[in-house]
């Protein structure tokens, strides 16, 4: 909770004034039974109609003052609650922006989205309610008790017994239902995940004729969710009746004690009515409270979930150092690098060492799961090495600020992602202030010119969410353009031509090679044709370097490379045999 | 009108729980009436406490005993009512959600392809959730509210019609005020939910693609964009929450007026000898009780408005037009030989943009058909039609001589084994993912299939082998590994026909070569459709279809097509060099 309360700090005034005005209102409410008692004891006993009129006017005035303070309180509460939620959302979003790739892998997307949206919403209503009610309710309860004491100490002892017993029940029920409510939310997560899966995998599910099975699974999860809801429901359904019984038992006791006290002449009949009214007020307040405790319980469960994300420390620390760790003549250098993913069985990369000079092109090839992607992901420091160092321009990547490092690198990932917006906006992700000429040049290099030309709106064509209005190949080419417009010092193409036909792939590579300046290029590919002209080819096999050199060298000496090569150029293989 | 419709539909769902509805309404009435009766009993008791020495203890104890019994029965009926309400609301919601999910399974793919996934998820999850909350609140407070109002009214009239009149005249004012505020704030809530939607879209897109955001160091800009919407949301939430929260103080102020009015007229009546003090105290507590349900109902109305809006969105989804059901007496496809014919097929996604026109094709049983062509040429569309994910506009597709319109979808799709480029794996163990097409597969069969697809070795390297849990969307696995699993899935179920859409695009060529032999064995005697870029795969096909802009422009085998020196020849040249 502490971590979250920080976000209320800027609303100190509101969090203080809101409940204060609420208390003010409650105080006025508490005076009313006194006024009524006065009407009965003074006005009615003396048949003084003027007194009754005066007292009634006082009651109306109290009402007006109550109204004003209550509205003020609502305002401060709403301001603090929405302000709190806004700041919290911002902080959570910023937190997620700062998480490392391995943390993103661990936490999972959908649960982060739920936490950002529905959990914070729940928490906002919770805060709002706490500010409005949770000071007011105890205040009324204890206030009523104190007022009862001013009337008659002995009769008021009934309150002293009833109220703690009540609090015990209320908090008991809360304590029991909070963990169960968390269970409900986890069950809801499961319902959500099967829904998402079915939307994403609709083709596969239908292809396997799995609709029935999916419905059964859904019915099962949905049923489990409902069962958990009903369980929590049964517990909170007790809240109202139990408090009702306890208060009324209190009232019965009160009347009896009151009767004794009146009989002994200690208090008047009007005072018994006042005591009774106080007890009724407590009842009304508690019923309200009981209904809202469910909201609070939910809010607390959600707060826990949000806090979990907020308390994640980014596992990637930035420690900027200018110190040179290696030869500055190399653009990129790997020194004995090993890498293991969090929670993985073994190392994904082990003992990788190589060095690349500026302007060189490096081809990376190897089997499925050989570690090609893992290797290039170390250059912009998406992941940290578990052993060894990755150097860019002679400096350890850990000594750069992430921003500085990633400014040097343009990467096209395996899965091409475009964002909702125009094509221009998407390409400009690489370079914010790119001119039309620069954009067009990038599109041309990426062989994406025709995509834009075929659209009536050209660069202003809107890419829908998830880029559903583009084919896989179009998405890929646009994401290549996005990396190229950046004119990065290091360009990484991670199997980014898989959806392109060979002809387009070839033209793309030619254009990149023709680019002026000395851009260092890493090409990850399954196709030998894509990398055979590279200055340096790394052949990976199960996380280790199985061969390193040029195409001609590897073709002669590297068995793995030979296998890969001849698997694609059978004819030549036959020929050479 | 639309609201009325929604209301009727909600009623029809609720009516399935008629027994609980009866319980709920019945016990609501009992508890409300008894809760009203308690103050009368207490009032009687107070009347017996007159002054010092004038207290009828025997009478009081008798009355209090009665009160205790009534209180107990009230609490019991409250509890039964609460439990019934839970049953109804959670049950209705469960049914609706189940129906929505069943709908999801029979919606045409054209609908699912065109709607953003987030929208459908939010209907099935958040809207249903909101509706359930509204419904529960409605049941708990609406009926009790109405019964309390009617009951109080009757009791008051029986006690003193004149005072009752005062209460009845002033109270509806609160309802008026409440509905006035509700109307004024409705648009504020609309703005709020729209802004929320806008924000959720950003969250969904950015957090879903967090890695790309970080790769381009766009964290700050994204945060800034988020912050803008967040600020706006904060402001409009504050407006909506504050203005709607005036309802409560305002109605309570009116209650105060009612209370004062009752106090005044009551006190005057006592002075004039028309009322006892005990009756007055009882009246005052009625005045409180009478106004309370008005407050609650006014609160419930806003809640219900929201709930019905959500229900409307869900019903809209449930009533969306389903795919055409299988024709009556549709054939179950079994012992498929694999003769596939397409006769004069016309098809387009968008009526304005023609795609496939007059397509004719005959594939003999056991033939291997390769489909090649540039991106966007209609390869995926062919698959959509073969699998009957979409229906043809004109012409027909036949399998073994039967029009697929006359075959059950399930048996048709089950006859095809499909591996797509976009892999789909679900959260669960590796084994769960493999047996999707053959749930009763034995351990040996599973391992044999995994070995044939060369997935066995990487599976064994995972921490728990075949029982390793994989995350939503197959996270943690490389693209190639995911494809291997999808292939293993098909190798396990061995359907009579195959559709392979770039099934090996992310698998390295050496592994592919190894799988190829397994594929070749599998394709033996099975009609197969293959979409691929790789020459080795294409070359061995019996028929190669060269597609361009929705039409088959060339057809033949590798050698005959090369001899034509047409489009295929060009593709081949560029790819081989």
Could you characterize what this model shows?
The complex is a heterodimer of chains A (577) and B (577). By secondary structure, chain A is of the alpha/beta class. Chain A has helices at residues 2-5, 12-44, 49-97, 101-107, 109-134, 136-151, 153-200, 202-207, 211-263, 269-310, 372-378, 402-408, 423-427, 436-445, 449-453, 472-484, 502-514, 528-531, 551-557, 559-568, 570-576; strands at residues 332-339, 349-356, 361-366, 387-392, 395-396, 409-412, 421-422, 462-463, 490-494, 520-524, 536-541, 544-549. Chain A has two domains: 12-310, ABC transporter type 1, transmembrane domain (ABC transporter transmembrane region fold), CATH 1.20.1560; 332-576, Rossmann fold. In chain A, the strands form three sheets. Chain A has a six-stranded mixed sheet, with helices on both faces. In chain A, strands 2-1-4-5 form a four-stranded antiparallel sheet, covered by helices on one side. In chain A, helix 3 (49-97) runs antiparallel to helix 5 (109-134), helix 7 packs antiparallel against helix 9 (211-263) and helix 19 (551-557) crosses helix 20 (559-568). Chain A is elongated. Residues 571-577 of chain A have low confidence and may be disordered. Chain B has two domains: 2-318, ABC transporter type 1, transmembrane domain (ABC transporter transmembrane region fold), CATH 1.20.1560.10; 340-576, Rossmann fold (3-Layer(aba) Sandwich). Chain B is built from 21 helices and 14 strands. A six-stranded mixed sheet of chain B has the order 8-11-12-5-13-14, with helices on both faces. A four-stranded antiparallel sheet of chain B has the order 4-3-6-7, with no helix packed on it. A two-stranded antiparallel ribbon of chain B has the order 1-2. In chain B, helix 18 (509-523) links the parallel strand 11 (497-501) and strand 12. The chains are: A alpha/beta (577), B alpha/beta (577). At the A-B interface, helix 2, helix 3, helix 4, helix 5 and helix 7 of A face helix 2, strand 1, strand 2, helix 3 and helix 4 of B.
């Amino acid at each position: 909770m502490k971590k979250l309360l920080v976000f209320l700090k800027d609303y100190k005034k509101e969090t203080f004034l809101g409940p204060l005005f609420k208390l003010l209102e409650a105080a006025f409410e508490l005076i009313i039974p006194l006024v009524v008692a006065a009407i009965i004891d003074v006005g009615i006993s003396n048949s003084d109609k003027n007194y009754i009129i005066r007292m009634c006017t006082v009651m109306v005035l109290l009402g007006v003052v109550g109204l004003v303070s209550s509205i003020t309180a609502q305002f401060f509460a709403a301001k603090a609650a929405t302000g709190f939620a806004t700041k919290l959302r911002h902080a959570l979003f910023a937190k997620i922006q700062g998480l490392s790739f391995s943390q993103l892998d661990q936490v999972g997307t959908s649960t982060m989205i739920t936490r950002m949206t529905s959990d914070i919403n729940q928490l906002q209503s919770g805060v709002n309610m706490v500010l409005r009610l949770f000071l007011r309710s105890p205040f009324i309860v204890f206030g009523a008790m104190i007022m009862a004491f001013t009337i008659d100490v002995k009769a008021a002892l009934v309150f002293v017994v009833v109220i703690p017993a009540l609090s015990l029940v209320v908090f008991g029920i809360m304590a029991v239902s909070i963990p169960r409510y968390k269970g409900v939310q986890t069950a809801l997560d499961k319902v959500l995940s099967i829904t998402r899966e079915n939307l994403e995998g609709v083709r596969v599910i239908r292809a396997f004729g799995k609709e029935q099975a999916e419905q059964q699974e859904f019915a099962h999860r949905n049923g489990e969710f409902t069962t958990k809801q009903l369980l929590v429901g049964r517990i909170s359904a007790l809240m109202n009746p139990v408090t009702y019984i306890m208060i009324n038992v209190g009232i019965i006791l009160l009347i009896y004690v009151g009767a004794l006290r009146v009989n002994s002449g200690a208090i008047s009949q009007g005072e018994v009515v006042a005591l009774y009214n106080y007890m009724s007020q407590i009842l009304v307040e508690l019923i309200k409270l009981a209904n809202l405790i469910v909201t609070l319980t939910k809010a607390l469960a959600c707060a826990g979930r949000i806090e979990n994300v907020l308390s994640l420390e980014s596992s990637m620390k930035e420690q900027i150092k200018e110190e040179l760790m290696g030869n500055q003549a190399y653009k990129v250098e790997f020194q004995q690098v090993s890498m293991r993913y969090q929670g993985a069985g073994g190392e994904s990369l082990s003992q990788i060492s190589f060095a690349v000079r500026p302007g060189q092109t490096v081809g990376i090839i190897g089997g499925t799961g050989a570690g090609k992607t893992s290797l290039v992901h170390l250059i912009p420091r998406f992941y940290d090495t578990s052993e060894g160092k990755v150097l860019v321009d002679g400096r350890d990547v850990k000594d750069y600020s992430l921003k500085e490092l990633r400014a040097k690198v343009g990467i096209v990932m395996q899965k091409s992602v475009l964002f909702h917006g125009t094509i221009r906006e998407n390409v400009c992700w690489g370079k914010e202030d790119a001119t039309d000429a620069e954009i067009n040049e990038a599109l041309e290099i990426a062989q994406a010119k025709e995509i834009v030309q075929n659209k009536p709106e050209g660069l202003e064509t809107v890419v829908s969410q998830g880029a559903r209005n583009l084919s896989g190949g179009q998405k890929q080419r646009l994401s290549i353009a996005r990396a190229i417009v950046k004119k990065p010092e290091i360009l990484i193409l991670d199997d980014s031509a898989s959806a392109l036909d060979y002809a387009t792939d070839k033209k793309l590579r030619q254009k990149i090679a023709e680019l002026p300046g000395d851009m260092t290029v890493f090409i990850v590919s399954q196709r030998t044709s894509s990398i055979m002209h590279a200055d340096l080819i790394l052949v990976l096999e199960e996380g280790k370097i199985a061969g390193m050199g040029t195409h001609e060298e590897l073709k002669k000496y590297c068995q793995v490379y030979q296998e890969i090569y001849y698997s694609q150029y059978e004819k030549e293989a036959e020929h050479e045999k | 009108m639309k609201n009325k419709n929604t209301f009727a539909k909600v009623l029809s769902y609720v009516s399935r729980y008629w027994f609980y509805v009866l319980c709920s309404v019945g016990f609501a009435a009992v508890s409300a009436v008894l809760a009203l009766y308690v103050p009368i009993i207490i009032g009687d008791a107070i009347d017996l406490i007159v002054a010092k020495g004038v207290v009828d203890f025997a009478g009081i104890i008798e009355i209090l005993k009665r009160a205790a019994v009534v209180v107990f029965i009230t609490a019991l009926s409250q509890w039964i009512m609460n439990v019934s309400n839970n049953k109804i609301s959670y049950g209705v919601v469960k049914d609706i959600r189940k129906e929505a999910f069943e709908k999801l399974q029979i919606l045409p793919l054209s609908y699912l392809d065109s709607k953003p996934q987030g929208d459908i998820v939010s209907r099935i999850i958040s809207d249903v959730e909101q509706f359930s909350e509204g419904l529960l609140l409605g049941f708990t407070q609406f009926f009790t509210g109405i019964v309390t109002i009617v009951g109080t009214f009757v009791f008051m009239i029986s006690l003193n019609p004149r005072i009752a009149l005062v209460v009845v005249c002033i109270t509806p004012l609160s309802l008026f005020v409440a509905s006035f505020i509700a109307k004024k704030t409705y648009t504020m809530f609309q703005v709020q939910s729209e802004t929320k939607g806008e924000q959720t879209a950003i969250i969904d897109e950015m957090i879903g693609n967090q890695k790309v955001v970080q790769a381009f160091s766009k964290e700050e800009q994204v945060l800034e964009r988020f912050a803008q919407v967040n600020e706006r949301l904060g402001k409009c939430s504050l407006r909506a929450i504050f203005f709607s929260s005036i309802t409560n103080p305002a109605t309570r102020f009116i209650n105060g007026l009612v209370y004062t009015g009752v106090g005044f007229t009551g006190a005057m009546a006592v002075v004039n000898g028309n009322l006892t003090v005990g009756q007055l105290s009882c009246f005052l507590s009625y005045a409180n009780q009478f106004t309370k349900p008005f407050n609650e109902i006014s609160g419930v109305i806003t809640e219900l408005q929201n709930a019905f809006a959500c229900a409307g969105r869900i019903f809209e989804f449930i009533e969306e037009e389903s795919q055409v059901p299988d024709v009556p007496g549709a054939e179950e496809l079994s012992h498929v030989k694999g003769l596939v014919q397409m006769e004069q097929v016309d098809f387009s996604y968008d009526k304005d943009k023609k795609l496939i026109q007059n397509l004719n094709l005959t594939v003999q049983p056991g033939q291997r058909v390769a489909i090649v062509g540039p991106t966007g040429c209609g390869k995926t569309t062919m698959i959509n039609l073969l699998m009957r994910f979409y229906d043809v506009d004109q012409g027909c597709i036949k399998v073994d001589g039967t029009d697929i319109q006359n075959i059950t979808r399930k048996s048709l799709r089950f006859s095809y084994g499909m591996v797509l480029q976009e892999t789909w794996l679900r959260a669960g163990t590796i084994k769960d993912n493999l047996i999707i097409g053959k749930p009763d597969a034995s351990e040996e069969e599973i391992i044999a299939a995994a070995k044939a697809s060369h997935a066995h070795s990487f599976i064994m390297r995972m921490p728990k082998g075949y029982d390793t849990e994989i995350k939503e969307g197959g996270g943690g696995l490389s693209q190639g590994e995911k494809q291997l699993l999808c292939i293993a899935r098909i190798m396990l179920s061995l359907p009579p026909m195959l559709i392979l859409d770039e099934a090996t695009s992310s698998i390295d060529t050496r592994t592919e070569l190894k799988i190829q032999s397994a594929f070749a064995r599998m394709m033996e005697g099975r009609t197969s459709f293959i979409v691929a870029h790789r020459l080795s795969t294409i070359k061995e096909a019996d028929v190669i279809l060269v597609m361009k802009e929705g039409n088959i422009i060339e057809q033949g085998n590798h050698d005959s097509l090369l001899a034509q020196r047409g489009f295929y020849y060009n593709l081949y040249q560029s790819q081989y060099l």
